[in-house]
Design brief:
Length: 113
Amino acid sequence: MPEPLNTLEAFNDFLSHIQVKMNTAGGIIKESPDGLLLQSSTVAQTVQAEFADGDTHEISGSYVEFAERRALPEYQNLYPKSLQREQRREGFEAGNADKIFESTFTSQTQKDL
């Protein structure tokens, strides 16, 4: 029986196992300075797009971002399944976002698995 996919690391391992290309800019898992927000993302697939002038170009499509919001320090002793949303790390990390957005960069879309 497979291990639970209840951490970002385990989920990323599963995605890699089924050959989903992951964004490696800044590491596969981007961690907030406090260690309570972990983020990763797939790499965008490229698609052919026709522009208004009739030209067709290959561009980056969509990617999916994943986040693990860990328990705030005062709630870390609670059973994980009993945690409420407000007891987990909230917010956004600009430093991580820069690397997540690289999911559409050629340096990511053109790399091998």
